[in-house]
Specification:
This protein is mainly α. It is built from three helices and two strands; from the N terminus they run ββααα. It is extended, with a radius of gyration of 18 Å. The N and C termini lie far apart (about 50 Å).
């Protein structure tokens, strides 16, 4: 299935790029920009990004390195008033 019509990138190419990046560096953070560069292309209009991201997430090897999981979870734990001023 073609995911990016501007560059004719398929879901198979995205999955292959993710697998290749994970195999070459298991600790790397994989982003759409890195996938475009790995495929030798550049993002054009950005209309494909929702489907592009869904395709990335469906890859078995996309996993986030353990030390980066839950980094922001502790930031939002005890904020019941969302830091709003009293009386607003």
């Amino acid at each position: 299935m073609i995911v990016c019509h501007c560059n004719a990138i398929t879901d198979h190419e995205i999955r292959s790029a993710v697998d290749w990046m994970r195999a070459s560096d298991p600790e790397t953070i994989i982003t759409p920009g890195k996938i475009y560069r790995a495929l030798g292309k550049r993002a054009e209009c950005g209309g494909c990004l929702p489907v592009f991201l869904d395709t990335m997430k469906s890859c078995d090897t996309i996993g986030v390195p353990m030390e980066l999981r839950g980094l922001t979870a502790h930031l939002h734990k005890d904020i019941s008033d969302e830091r709003r001023q009293k009386g607003n």
